[in-house]
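Annotators were shown the component list below and the corresponding predicted structure, then asked to write short factual statements about the assembly.
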Amino acid sequence: MAKSKYEYVKQFERETVFLPHTWLVVRIDGQGFHRFTATHDFEKPNDLRALELMNRCARGVFDQVGGICFAYGESDEYSFVVHENSQYFNRREAKLVSSIVSLFTSLYVFYWPTVFPDRQLKYPPSFDGRIVCYPTEAILRDYLAWRQVDCHINNLYNTCFWTLVQSGKSTVDAERELMGTLSADKNEMLFTKFGINYNKLPSIFRKGSIIVRDYVEEEHTDKATGEIRKKRKMRTVVVHEDIIKNKFWEQRPHILGKK
Amino acid sequence: MAKSKYEYVKQFERETVFLPHTWLVVRIDGQGFHRFTATHDFEKPNDLRALELMNRCARGVFDQVGGICFAYGESDEYSFVVHENSQYFNRREAKLVSSIVSLFTSLYVFYWPTVFPDRQLKYPPSFDGRIVCYPTEAILRDYLAWRQVDCHINNLYNTCFWTLVQSGKSTVDAERELMGTLSADKNEMLFTKFGINYNKLPSIFRKGSIIVRDYVEEEHTDKATGEIRKKRKMRTVVVHEDIIKNKFWEQRPHILGKK
Amino acid sequence: MAKSKYEYVKQFERETVFLPHTWLVVRIDGQGFHRFTATHDFEKPNDLRALELMNRCARGVFDQVGGICFAYGESDEYSFVVHENSQYFNRREAKLVSSIVSLFTSLYVFYWPTVFPDRQLKYPPSFDGRIVCYPTEAILRDYLAWRQVDCHINNLYNTCFWTLVQSGKSTVDAERELMGTLSADKNEMLFTKFGINYNKLPSIFRKGSIIVRDYVEEEHTDKATGEIRKKRKMRTVVVHEDIIKNKFWEQRPHILGKK
Amino acid sequence: MAKSKYEYVKQFERETVFLPHTWLVVRIDGQGFHRFTATHDFEKPNDLRALELMNRCARGVFDQVGGICFAYGESDEYSFVVHENSQYFNRREAKLVSSIVSLFTSLYVFYWPTVFPDRQLKYPPSFDGRIVCYPTEAILRDYLAWRQVDCHINNLYNTCFWTLVQSGKSTVDAERELMGTLSADKNEMLFTKFGINYNKLPSIFRKGSIIVRDYVEEEHTDKATGEIRKKRKMRTVVVHEDIIKNKFWEQRPHILGKK
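Structure shown to annotators:
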């Protein structure tokens, strides 16, 4: 069987390999999630369990795919940062994007029954992915700030919109009422009309979710003495903090530091 | 909130857009399926239900993602051919690869309980994907021939190997016995030692699986007369035929023809 | 001297390598030739010597750079076709473009005094270059037709424009008179107003210039008998024919044929 | 004339556009300069006029092509640094490479008779070009250090080699004598055998040539008073200094600074 006769077709394969010493961001996005969230009765403006499912999947990707040092998620999207020093998959675009998007999707369907024991998955969801290369840490930080600002703007809007709708307005009227309003107006409206202090809402909604490896104090029982001791361990954690200002990064210099 | 301040980071996004009038092949591959098939007790050399699950997922991708005119699968891989005239996703690499690999994975986990009601999915599987561009139909045909030859060679080898093992040989001895043998030797061995006529084995194992849209005769009952009439309808079908020779293609000129 | 310390910077080099079995066109264009032709008093609408200089340079490129099977020039641009089977420079984009544009430019300055012995080169001209990949011979033929149609349209317009100007019109009036006219109108105007039969003008102006290797009959004197014999030899030739219709190509199947 | 019928071929054009905020280096190299220098009797190990011609051409490119903030040359190669903030040619690869290599070549042939009035150019030289993208200033600095180290190593070797040859050794014997020697050995050999203090040789040979815009003191005569005044002006200058250490850059923060 003349196998070799056809093998020349491998010469048509091309690889995009990203430059060394650059930061790579793989961002995945739910495809058609407008319909998906409607079909599966997600709570509005935020469905806490749906966000927890996203975080669980992202954590799986974070722990299994090499080279990822940071992840940020909001709504139906997640950004995974591949460290500038990572050589995982030799920095090949197709491998990085397809592996991350595939594993994330797999985890989503896999964990659905655990997170939503009462709600059946009606059809299989899918995500698309892309990869963007950022040459410096400063620009990467701006990328992450861009996503967190996006989370804030969307969440503030959606909180107002759904509060209005839940108070009896039609969606058209709610939309009209919010048109042209600034952040301050929206905060004011929530507070005066509905007694909602936006800044007291759960930070997972306002700040999105951050996955990093960080030092955590854990208690260990000394087997010999029975004494309880605290030890600092490096663990994967999910937090909901401001990543626009410097404080978060100054407290965790190991995240973006040289590996 | 100075959204605009960070939006410049979008300028770093790059798109690979494939040339018009070229054939695109998205090939997906199971990641770490050696371990996955072992953990999930797949039958050797072929697990029919596992192949049917692959085909079911591929069929879902075939029907949902635009521009795909042909798909070919064997083992834990599947190739999807995007027609040279397709403008789906504007021929953007990241969108095509990530959407197909994500949907395929989602379907795999989603349909698992249906196909394997008796076997629990122990951990979420993942696939990687790549896209290759072929400039002419002739070279595309050589690509598909390459995959079908690969299917044949692997299946003949695996059939011999597992037959020897099931007959009591150790895996090391089976491997040694097959070393350096030609196709003819392997056919001979199966026939004389084990009474197996290789060419009579199921074609899904020997030829792999092909998904196309094809004309199918369907019976319709005329509501007025109650008469049963045959109608030719275009349907998505899965077949297991030779795609190396011309016959398959000559019988179905619509598959690769101008759209 | 720690040479190795810095050599890692080579890892940042990237190569664009074109797909096998595709046609590559390197097109070069004069940069700022509006000013260049004005400064050097080129005749209008066509300067025959300037075109001959372009052809001479293109011929030098054609003969020195590997893999080129066809070249087409008009005005201050030239297209070089790299054969689909060529492996020259391993089909690397930067090598192909830079070598061709550099050699062409070098020849232009080098041959200037020979072609224009009476006119000094006042400043060094430059060209830019790009490379485009065409997947099939049919599309390559369309590319070449596109350029020859462009040559025809521009030349017909320029011939009318400069004939009007030379007859005493201002450039503004000449432009206005031609606005909205069709090819037929322009032919008619040249004939009735100025007695010019456009189709009798030199084909180098109307058709552009084509460089190919072709069979040429040459006379050889037999040294023994003194007899003159005709021999067919393959030579690089410059011709000015129609390349849109099939005839040119049917007469010369070796040009685009398999190598 | 159906122009539009063929214009679809423009859809095949692709542009590589470099990432914003990255440093681009266009490096050009003489093609076949071994033969070129032999044919044109260049002095060994260094021909001062040939280097001056290279510098003159590089200076022309530096002054005419936008976005270049630094250039470094040695032997028959030159590197042009496009500033990270430059938007010239929209950072398109083909435009940048082809324009720079074409203009450089044009200047080389154009200025040849001025620099070598006694030596005719026997055939047209050509250069190839490539472009490399560096994400940070630190890595760009390492690139430039790499080239200057290369200049030093080659020049020390060539100085020894040609001194040995000029002292009567065959080229084979000279090569053998230098095999395996370290820098210190070569310096020692030049000094003890030939009385040459390598560090006293012209810095253009040892350090290569650097082109930058820098502040230069110029004398101006005040028209009113006739007084001579010194003014600092920004001028394009060619220098031959160390660019590996920080001093050069600390003295000229404007070169790589934000534009």
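Statements collected:
1. The longest helix of chain C spans residues 137-166.
2. Chain C touches chain A at residues 8, 11-12, 14, 17, 19-20 (CB under 8 Å).
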